[in-house]
Amino acid sequence: MQAGIDGGIAGIVAECGGCCQCATCHVYVAAEWRERLPPITETEDAMLDNTVCDRLPESRLSCEIKVTPQLDGLVVNLPARQV
Amino acid sequence: MSAPTVAIVGAGLAGFQVASALRDQKFAGRVVLVGDEPHRPYHRPPLSKSFLLADTDEPSLAMRPDAYYAEKQIELMSSTRAVAIDRTHRKLALDNGSVVDFEHLVLAVGARNRPLPVPGHDINGVFFLRHLDEARALRLRLHKAKQAVVIGAGFIGLEFAATATKLGVAVTVLEVADRPMSRALSAPMAAVFAREHAKAGVRFLWNTQVKRLLDDEGRVAAVETVEGTVIDADLVLIGIGVIPNIELAETCNLKVQNGIAVDGHLATDDPHISALGDCASYPSVFAADEYVRLESVQNATDQARCVAARIMGRAMPYSAVPWFWSDQGPLKLQIAGVTTGHDETVVRGDPSGISCSVFCFRGGRLLGVETVNRPADHMAARRLVGNRVELNVAQAADETVDLKRLAAAAAAATGA
Fold first, then answer.
1. In the prediction, which pLDDT does B415 show?
2. Distance from the B45 Cα atom to the nearest Cα atom in chain A, whole angstroms
3. Which of B29, B77, B109, B226 is 20 to 30 Å from the Cα of B42, by its Cα?
């Protein structure tokens, strides 16, 4: 999420500033990357049920994905809308 | 005719979001964003938690990178105060001597810390926590502190207490009421927080008031209560609520009432002036009392979109369901709806643990739901309250009633 904001990516809204409260930093992560991400917490799971665009198996909140060297090359797709 | 100008006073979350929403909605005129702090708009919630722990650095508090403002043609005027509004000629006077001609004016002027009018309130080592500069100073002192006294068991005071306790600082909290967050939280939920903070090592003194703060060679040394109890402290945080900034509105005779009064579209009694966020008192269909003034991230962002849409000629009444959160150590409090004024509560889950939900009713109608570490209940509650689902007391108490399913059915019925 932070990388998206810093990079000026308009599709990452992040109204709550990365506190896992607003579900406006929704991203879709391809299967081959999903297992390398931190597991979905109960809070993120609940929040993902309230995304504006459909929740898919690929859905994550980008505020819960901290960028690490293991994620070098990660590509995410953005939903059409966040709000 | 030149493009119209929207002037926004206040560069906190509400003001920033109006500017941002105007550009998102393709507003083509000038956007002037005036803020009295020297910083670019930044997120405040981390200031009482990860920022104090030094887990969050200053650049990542920024709502957007510096380049955003030029790219979006948002004229950000930092370290600048609005001093007067000429409603007849639609002019906004600033303390740097310049005057902004506006078509529409947005007051997102926020609130300020309520002062503690006792001797010693301004001794070195006594802090408030609202702005980045306050948080910076507090962080420096906190990492050297041994004994902290928090005056006020509200959200800020308890978030700070949890953070300070985590850093190994002994914390005593003084509160005028008999329980924490008494203006905002039901008694059953307050009991959970009082017990769990105490378990983590926080000491509470209830039903007490501060008589004075004592110093030792100019630095704070102790807090004395009206009963004469003296508590040693090398750091004091005052968190006794806020006062909405209504003065600018008053100087131009806009209506005020516990905030700047606005209608259901967030317009003041001057159609060319709107107000939103912490400073605005608005009529809410979700509240037991007709008018509310809410201090929250949700309130600022949702109201900003509503104001921007009206400026763009797509007026819609403000109807977003209020929600709120407060992270206090391992306790994640979330509130959906406005629970003030409830006359009945129903608890789901085990209130002797750290995961339960309190449903707040008034006259049998669900006002809102407070949850701790039950995010699924909270998200369901946002939709249930938002869609005004008639959940009754028996259903709330019955764990087999699936809230998520009820919420989804209600959302499908309304298309929300």
1. 64
2. 8
3. B29
